[in-house]
Amino acid sequence: MTTQNPAPRFVTLAEAAEVLGVSVRTIQRRIAAGELMAERQGERVARVRIDPVPPPTDHGAAVIVRETLTGVLDRYRASLDRMERRGRRLVTLAAAGLAVAVGGVAFAVAMSSAASKADANASSSLAEVRQANAALLASERQIADLRERLAETTAAVARVTIESRQRLAQMTAADAECERLTAERDELAEDLADIRVAFVMSPMASASAD
């Protein structure tokens, strides 16, 4: 029975980012690189085409892992950018408060505290990005190890196949030799029987019997 592939669908930038597990910036970059198709209204991207995802293969396992981790990294980088922009706005507001009201010490302290929290959040996001990078490197090392093991197994199978063929050839030659020796034995037995018959029928054998 033939299975029909689902038709592609068109979604917004935000929906495409959510479906593919990446940031909106990554979707825009893929559209610019020609990796994704999109419908435009003037200079603005209206909808993004999402094709059905084919089932993963052994060869594409590394690509799937890399795409997933790349999406995670993009989201963390986007979060880090938002934290940095928020921290800058808070610092600007704190400076404006100090300039407008000298007596607004409490307000400035609050803004400074918020900026510190924003910096802490940005540092935490940066640490998560570094952890994701480390996880990506570990996955690539595991994939390299699996490829090396696969190559070793393939070589071992090839050696066993060659040895099996050599043993089969030896067994075939031994069978042929056994058949030859058996035929030779049968011929010798027939010759011996003929000799015995000739001896029995000879005059010397008759004289000895008398």
What is the count of DSSP helices, taking H or I runs of 4+ residues?
A: 5
> Order of SSEs, N→C?
EHHEEHHH
The residue ranges in which pLDDT falls below 50 over 5 or more consecutive positions are none
The spatial strand order of the largest sheet comes to 1-3-2
Average of per-residue pLDDT values: 79
Intertermini distance: 94 Å
Tally the beta strands: 3
- What is the share of helical residues? over 70%
Largest sheet: 3 strands, antiparallel
CA-based shape: rod-shaped
- Strand content bin: 5-15%
Coarse structural class: mainly alpha
Radius of gyration: 42 Å
Put the structure in a nutshell.
77% of the residues lie in helices and 7% in strands. The protein is mainly alpha-helical and 210 residues long.
Task: Sum up the structure in keywords.
rod-shaped; 210 residues; mainly alpha; single chain
Provide an overview of this structure.
The N and C termini lie far apart (94 Å). The chain has helices at residues 13-20, 24-32, 61-100, 105-201, 203-209, and strands spanning 9-11, 38-41, 44-50. Helix content is 77%, strand content 7%. Helix 3 (61-100) packs antiparallel against helix 4 (105-201). It has a domain at 1-55.
Element layout with pairings:
Layout: E1 9-11, H1 13-20, H2 24-32, E2 38-41, E3 44-50, H3 61-100, H4 105-201, H5 203-209
Antiparallel strand pairs: 1-3, 2-3
Helix pairs in contact: 1-2, 3-4
